[in-house]
Fold this sequence. Notes:
31 helices, globular, six-stranded parallel β-sheet, Rossmann fold, alpha/beta, binds ligand 26Q, 3 domains
Amino acid sequence: MDRDRLLETFKNIEVTDKTAVELYKEISSACMDEIMGESGKTPERCAYYFSVEYLMGRMFFNNLLALGVLNEAREIFARKGFDLNAFEDVEDAALGNGGLGRLAACYLDSAANGGYPLYGFGIRYKYGLFRQKIVEGEQVEEADDWLKTWGDPWSVRREDENVEVKFADMTVTAVPYDMPIYGKSVNILRLFQAEGSEEAEKISEYLYPADDTEEGKILRIRQEYFFSAAAVGQLVKRYVKQYGRNFSHFPEQHVFQLNDTHAVFAVAEFLRLLTKEYRLTLPHAVEIAKQTFNYTNHTILPEALECWDSKLVEKVLPEIAHILTRLHLLAKREWNACGYPKEETAEMSIVRGGKFSMANVAVYISGRVNGVAEIHTKILKERLFTAAYGHAPEKFLNVTNGVTQRRWLMLCNEELANFYDTRLGHGWRKNLPAIEEIACDDGDALAAFARIKETKKAQLAAYIEKREGITLLPDAVYIAQVKRLHEYKRQFMTALAILRIYFDLKEGKLPDFTPAVFIFGAKAAGSYKRAKEIILFLNKIAELIANDAEVNGKLQVVFVQNYDVSYAEKIVAGSDVSLQVSTAGFEASGTGNMKLMMNGAVTVGTMDGANIEIVEKAGKENNYIFGATVEEINALGGKYDPVKFAEEHPRIKQVTDTLTDGTFGDADGKLKDLASSLFEETYNRADHYYVLYDLLPLVDALLKVDEEYKDRTLFVKKQLFNATHAAFFSSDRAIRTYAEKIWKI
Ligand code: 26Q
């Protein structure tokens, strides 16, 4: 890469009479020329990441930072009278909905920066995750036409590499769009776009189309097969060109990583190709597959474990259904030959109750199966895949998630990055653990860090003012809960805790309360009714408090609209406190917790997911752990009765009563449904996620934060300790682990 040449090109770009969009395309394309000039031949052995989601966010600033020209570019264009911040209006590439998709993006970034050959495969959705507006407290979804205004200058259409993907009723062309990922090596994210008939093009139209109808389910199956088959087809074809039909070298050159089960059809397609096109026996093809595939699990929620009706798969993909059925029988024979008990083979079965268990396919075929935090991996071994673990313990390992410090520190918190530069030199930029050298009791460092936090809070406040038209309370502690909206993440519990604090304030029980601002950001899946009700409830509370002169100088709730990667960059840098309050055992890892920690937020959290490892690194004394542990929840068994529990705790009953007593009007029974979720057996038990059980401990933790925040030196020390002990949560570490322990690249 010729930096000087690129800067020269920037200097020669004429600014006058050009729109921001034109300039965006011109500058981006100059960068792309440099980047593409670097992308060389693919190495002998590569890892391939299969994911239905990639939450890349904005590529512009990230790529300029990677090219080492961000600051100069800002200056060059500023001198011409153009502020690069205009590109903060560029649409995010939101081809994903949460942690799993953002993890994929962080991993691509870290692999390129570490010089590991990791190539991503996925779908180029025409519309990304919906854009969210809040109207009268409720979520309204709009199509995310992300390509419309700014286009996609960071991808190259590669028609020369088109692949045909065959379904029972049609053939679809998979057109690759290659997005280079720039670092020590230049890797590629290849997203396939479906082209052909109108029906064919629907395949890459929407991310997670509603699957409550048969038609919706078929579309999902098509999507998953579409990109998996395109990727596998391409790689196998390229291999055969070089080696012919001797597949014994295939696993030496390829290692496949399945990002959850959404690409498990890649296994079936691989077996189909090897047996049908290249005439290997199934056992032989399975042997090759076993040396090639690996699987990362990201959730233990039963409703998120994919099972496809075998009849449905047969209808759309008869050969794939046939192969999966043969695989099922082959696995069964193998297990029977080993003399495994019936209950265990039933648990591990590929076909179960007329459905294909995609997780069981993945576990059976994968050389390595990993969870994404210590506690999660333990649960995989002991609860989810008990039998498989019992028979092949060596298959299972943990790789705790990580996030890229390039986006989540250097880009979003330049001030903190400069702080490290000043005190440590630039070495930490290539070696994050160096930030542990900062002395957290040094008065100068603490004062400097405190100023940075104030700056980032002011920037966040200004941004929220601009986007939401809401002025944040001055001199307040900023407490953020930003993540997908889900019952297990318990935004609902935080809402009830805020109401509890509201009543305490009204009753004069908290005379010394420091002003607190709660910032929520979350999207609810379109079909997830209860999640939408929780958004409504949060907004009702925000309104109640804002309109109450007795408390609105002390307490504030803001639900920001359209929370996305770019919004996250502002919120993680500008928050004091990170809320990570999932029911113990349910959050596989969490990665927002890491981003906030890296920027010096303290965690108010349960002993769940990566929170456990966070407090292990940053100290329990520097964070606020509360609530039931997995063991305590298990020990409760059937003994927990939320109705009785609320009766026994008037401080709980007072807040839950607001859901039904008209405090917030009727809201069409939506809040009543939330009350039902607590007190009636709407899933298999009342209060499935122990919201009431952990509510008062959460209130206590929040009040403790509020109290300790008053001693600013002490609090800032805790924050700095968290920031400087976040290196373990870098995706550079995670990728190194994958590369060494799984991929051998
Ligand atoms: C499954 C079946 C049918 C329809 C949809 C799905 C589905 C879709 C998306 C299931 C799961 C997802 C996404 C899961 C996800 O984002 N999981 C998060 O992954 C992060 C990265 O490992 C973890 O940090 C989070 O704890 C986990 O929730």
